[in-house]
Amino acid sequence: MEENEHHEEHKHHEEHKHHEGEHSSKKSHPKDFTNAIRKNPWILSTAVLGIVLLIFFVAIFMGVGWFSGNSISKEKAGENVVKFLNGQTGGGVEYVSSVEKYGVYEITVSYQSQKIPVYVSKDGKYFIQGVSEMVVSEEVEPEVTEVPKSDKPEVELFIWGYCPYGVQAQGPLAEVVSLLGSSADFKSIMYYDGHGAYETQQNKIQECIQELYPAKYWSYASKFVSEVYPNCSSVRTEECDKTQSVKVMKSLGIDSVKVLSCVDTKGEELISASSALAQELGVTGSPTLVINGVKANVARTAEAYKIAVCNAFNTAPKECETVLNSTSEAASGNC
Description:
The protein has 2 domains: about 110 residues, no CATH class; about 170 residues, Glutaredoxin (3-Layer(aba) Sandwich). The strands form 2 sheets. A 4-stranded antiparallel β-sheet has the order 1-2-3-4. Strands 6-5-7-8 form a 4-stranded mixed β-sheet, sandwiched between helices. Helix content is about 45%, strand content about 15%. By secondary structure, it is α+β, with helices and mostly antiparallel strands.
């Protein structure tokens, strides 16, 4: 904008700051906005953007545009915004075109070989980076898929090895396994490794334990939750993961040498199969509980998991009458 306008704005804001200095230090200040613009001209401070958007939508709903009584031409608005941005960036911003749109001026500028639309108020004093049209659709009730029944339900918990939500879900499900393990098939599907090499390694370890020692897997899973994860989730190294996992395996009578050999020779194959299964079933988050091939949307408590599994039996075993009053519950959320 023009230099004298900047001087008056700066003076006004400095006086405002002096009178409201006792307010929270988190309050946005125009200097913060200017500094952010100098670093990247297309990023607006949160506070300024909120105010601008509020004025913008009020103006649209009133059908009068932005300060339409003191409008300048779209060409002049384009000239002003280019001058302003070049003053903040040190140069390089070029005018391309300008049109009236959404009750404001859409000024297209070129910067570093990119064409960027900037929406400017009709009085030429305010701009925002972009505007999105609001499309309101009718709410649709989510489709509920009924879990099919079987004589021996197959229960699969899709997780990442170090996803905190998935790890928390293993605890409650392990309690259900201790109750119904002889009547249903339970498995952890280690389908993704978004946290890095240490998670890839843990995924392979758990897949190999299930491959070689299925009867001991859920005991390992429980100890992974209580011993390995707390020690290694913050360290995030393969060394910590391996050392702590071997310690747990030895405590359970699992041959760690055999398991680690499987990790090296067959681990990639096992987790690739798990990833393919997740894709086939449309699993997109850890944890996801799948019973008899269908995703089950239930609370992440031992009792809720138990009820979901028991409902999947053709004839539920007597153990289903047991109420699991455990306080363990996985937090809501997904990786």
